[in-house]
């Protein structure tokens, strides 16, 4: 197992840690959990997280890759594409080209690149089966880049545990604290760390909800989450507009 002295994480809300909220209102997330474990065994360990919620792959590449390359970290992670895939006019070829460019740049600057095979949404999100051709293209790109750049791949797509609502926040789009904990463990095991638990193991079954409860939950979700999301799409806005990365510089992690 390699000892990494620095880690830079790039991406969108998945890597920012959205919906794994700390008492002070900031996000934690899987990348922070990975950094915490790496720092525990590596004196002087440094960490930066450039991810910002709502970013498309083009924005991740344009805004985050150059700063990450300049940091020349031991370990760098790149995750993105689902925000693009969810948009009706997604040009998956252009998205793939941007990811390929990012991997070329990052693998040349860092000792180790980490990529992700995205979570399969089809058992959790109604109508998401229509997205599978795009998602399959992203998966293929990740697999090709892993071979070309000797990247470590964290395969979340094959883990059926993410079908469980127990790992997702109320908005049904972002992982909750337990979901992020499992992604962190999956990443650490992919990096060669000894398992602390079975990250892909089943979660305790949730008590069945009544029809009335499900209807109320769906209405609340549509009002609080779906409606605002549609509004942002129609007006060209993003949840990340004006938001800076939470850890823009490599600094000691404590």
Automatic annotation (TrEMBL):
<dbReference type="InterPro" id="IPR053140">
    <property type="entry name" value="GDSL_Rv0518-like"/>
</dbReference>
<dbReference type="Pfam" id="PF13472">
    <property type="entry name" value="Lipase_GDSL_2"/>
</dbReference>
<dbReference type="InterPro" id="IPR013830">
    <property type="entry name" value="SGNH_hydro"/>
</dbReference>
<feature type="region of interest" description="Disordered">
    <location>
        <begin position="232"/>
        <end position="254"/>
    </location>
</feature>
<feature type="compositionally biased region" description="Basic and acidic residues">
    <location>
        <begin position="243"/>
        <end position="254"/>
    </location>
</feature>
<feature type="domain" description="SGNH hydrolase-type esterase">
    <location>
        <begin position="9"/>
        <end position="182"/>
    </location>
</feature>
<protein>
    <submittedName>
        <fullName>Lysophospholipase L1</fullName>
    </submittedName>
</protein>
<dbReference type="InterPro" id="IPR036514">
    <property type="entry name" value="SGNH_hydro_sf"/>
</dbReference>
């Amino acid at each position: 197992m390699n000892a990494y002295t620095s880690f830079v994480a790039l991406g969108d809300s998945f890597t920012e840690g959205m919906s794994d909220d700390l008492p002070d209102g900031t996000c934690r997330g899987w990348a922070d959990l990975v950094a915490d474990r790496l720092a525990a065994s590596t004196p002087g360990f440094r960490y930066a997280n450039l991810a910002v919620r709502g970013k498309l792959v083009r924005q991740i590449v344009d805004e985050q890759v150059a700063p990450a390359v300049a940091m020349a970290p031991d370990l760098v992670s790149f995750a993105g594409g689902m925000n693009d895939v969810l948009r009706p006019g997604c040009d998956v070829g252009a998205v793939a080209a941007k990811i390929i460019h990012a991997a070329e740049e990052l693998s040349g600057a860092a000792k180790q690149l980490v990529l992700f095979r995205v979570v399969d949404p089809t058992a959790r999100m109604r109508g998401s089966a229509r997205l599978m051709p795009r998602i399959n293209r992203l998966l293929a790109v990740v697999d090709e880049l892993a071979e070309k750049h000797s990247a470590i791949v964290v395969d979340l797509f094959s883990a059926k545990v993410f079908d469980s609502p127990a790992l997702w926040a109320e908005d049904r789009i972002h992982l909750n604290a337990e979901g992020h904990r499992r992604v962190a463990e999956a990443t650490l095991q992919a990096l060669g760390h000894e398992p602390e638990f079975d990250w892909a193991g089943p979660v305790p079954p949730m008590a069945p909800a009544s029809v009335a409860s499900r209807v109320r939950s769906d209405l609340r979700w549509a009002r609080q989450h779906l409606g605002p999301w549609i509004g942002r799409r129609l007006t060209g806005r993003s949840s990340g507009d004006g938001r800076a990365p939470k850890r823009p510089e490599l600094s000691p992690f404590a």
